[in-house]
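Reading a protein record of the kind used here takes only a little practice. The record below shows the convention in full.

——
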Amino acid sequence: MKKIEAIIRPEKLDAVRRSLQESGCMGLMISEIEGHGKQKGKVQQWRGEKYKLELLPKIKVEAVVNDSQVSMVIDNIISSAKTGDTGDGKIFVSDIEDAVRIRTGERGSIAIG
């Protein structure tokens, strides 16, 4: 099992969520976060004054999937979140040792399905 964490633009959330659900990804966790990457924030103007936003709003989408689904989930995230501009986000993949469904006590891959 793998945990996929995708940091995406807020306006791309619906497209990413729809794409993952259509591909059979059953469970998602979504968090509103702030941060910056290579672009290090952006300068905006308000009432004639310029100011710098150092932390930009982002969305973190997390899913735990079987190893066989990883490439498909990554491809779906990329195709639905990509704009081609700086700030599109990142995808991180990490190993999950075990999963337990609290209600039934089921463990492993069956617990995430």
